[in-house]
Write a structure and sequence with these properties.
- The chain is mostly helical.
- 47% of the residues lie in helices and 5% in strands.
- A 4-stranded parallel β-sheet has the order 2-1-3-4.
- Helix 23 links the parallel strand 7 and strand 8.
- The longest helix has 18 residues.
- The relative contact order is 0.13.
- The N terminus and C terminus are likely disordered.
Length: 458
């Protein structure tokens, strides 16, 4: 199916999930753009209607369709509340692909821009960005320039590694007695190593391969290292997969599905050769993309089964840690000593909560491994307005969506905010900087890191 309007005669496959929509409107209050704009066309139900009239061959302005579909964050909150199970996310990606195909020059420019962020050439870019970050240039530019330049600088500055509760005195909490942080040399249940659980034989360890990705590898290496150390403390063994690449999420969100499928095939082949039990993502958007590979490759008989096998092995890092708490951790009943335990606000990434349906795992893992109870923001289940590159293309709307969270954080008096996706960390961090709030934004796995991070990392 192309951007050309189809005749009214359709097969069920061509209709996709459109026919399952019962027009109940339950998606409207869950949609962040509808909440802000109050326009039916900027709701899931309205966007599905715009897709449907195109398929039926009725007149609809392509500009209006492009505008309203472009406003969508792809947060999938509508899927969570939909009683009919409409596959809105898949329909959105398909329609964006058609819209992009109708503008070949824009498609080429989009692929070029995404390639600079996600391809091999991105290494030089990310090196330069890390240097700008560590030299304070990003912070300086954030306070000097207005508009998109200032926003981009705040987003970059928000990737700076912040204080970690595992460090002595950081965020008001010393290392817990008996925890891996308090005893950095304590044994872990690794193959060939000493038993980690007193009085028991060493339990078999599951191997994992960490998706390094593109933005995560370029700007959030400290999160990767925290994930590795936390998984090591839980007895898991890493298998490095060298031929992996970008997950394809940014491409899928913008309609570049051909490239997204290429990246999916590459990753499936690479991780299959690696042979790890689990494929771990510490970016919610990446994890959701990995689990969507069977859908992306549903029309490719050579890859369908491989994609399905692959998706069953995918785990979010907090999901896996919740299943396997650290062997050397102190009992839950041991109270923290010293200053008060820090107050950590938690904001659920949309692609963890709505796409992967992972809700309690981050709380379970953090509570069992650190003794900290993260406090969900009142709007925790609502999108922050980051949505990949959305904040750069729809800055005003993105800011309006974020305002509520910033005010909740301001009013809550939190020591830090935790969220498990790089785009969310950057969006919330940039919003807090713009509001003059010096509150760090961290990944939940950083609360579990049993070691301190070297200062001045580039």
């Amino acid at each position: 199916m192309s951007g050309v309007a189809l005749a009214p005669a359709h097969t069920l496959e061509e209709w996709g999930g459109l026919l399952t929509c019962v027009h109940c409107g339950l998606c409207l209050p869950a949609c962040p753009t509808y909440q802000v704009l109050g326009d039916e066309n900027d709701s899931p139900r309205g966007r599905l209607y715009l897709i449907r009239v195109r398929i039926e061959g009725r007149e609809v302005g392509e500009g209006a369709r492009r505008t309203h579909l472009g406003h969508c964050l792809g947060c999938l909150a509508c899927e969570t509340v939909c009683p009919a199970g409409v596959p809105y996310g898949a329909l959105l990606e398909q329609e964006r692909e058609r819209l992009l195909e109708s503008r070949p020059v824009r498609a080429w420019l989009g692929r070029l821009a995404l390639g600079s962020l996600t391809g091999r050439g991105g290494r030089l870019l990310y090196t330069a960005l890390r240097l700008m970050r560590s030299a304070g240039i990003a912070r300086w530019a954030a306070g000097l320039f207005p508009g998109r330049v200032g926003l981009a600088a705040r987003l970059l500055d928000a990737t700076r590694p912040g204080p970690r509760p595992g460090q002595a005195g950081a965020l008001g909490r010393p290392a817990r007695p008996g925890s891996p942080t308090a005893r950095p040399g304590s044994p872990t249940a690794r193959p060939g190593g000493p038993a980690a659980r007193a009085g028991t034989d060493p339990e078999p360890c599951a191997s994992y391969a960490l998706l390094e990705g593109c933005v995560m590898r370029g700007l959030f290496r400290h999160v990767h290292e925290s994930s590795r150390r936390a998984l090591d403390a839980s007895g898991h063994r890493e298998i490095h997969v060298s031929q992996q690449g970008c997950c394809g999420a940014l491409h899928a969100h913008t309609g570049c599905m051909d490239r997204a499928r290429e990246l999916a095939r590459r990753n499936i082949a690479a991780f299959e050769r690696g042979g790890a039990h689990y494929i771990v993502a510490d970016a919610a958007g990446c994890g959701a993309a990995l689990r969507a590979y069977p859908l992306w490759l549903a029309g490719d008989p050579d890859w369908t089964r491989a994609a399905e096998r692959f998706a069953t092995r995918v785990r979010d890092v907090m999901e896996l840690l919740a299943e396997t708490p650290p062997a050397a951790a102190a009992p839950r009943s041991t109270p923290p000593s010293g200053p008060r335990s820090p107050r950590i606000a938690y904001d659920a990434p949309c692609h963890l909560l709505h796409a992967q349906r992972i809700d309690s795992a981050p709380h379970v893992a953090v509570r069992s491994m650190s003794g900290i109870d993260m406090e969900p923001l009142p709007s925790s289940s609502d999108c922050c307005g980051g949505a990949g590159l959305y904040n750069l293309f729809h800055g005003t709307l993105s800011d309006r969506i974020l305002e509520r969270k910033v005010e909740e954080i301001r009013a809550g008096g939190y020591d830090a905010v935790a969220t498990g996706n790089p785009g969310c960390m950057m969006q919330i961090g940039a919003g807090l900087r713009a509001a003059g709030l010096k509150i760090p934004v961290v990944h939940p796995v950083e609360l579990l890191d049993p070691e301190t991070r070297p200062a001045g990392e580039v």
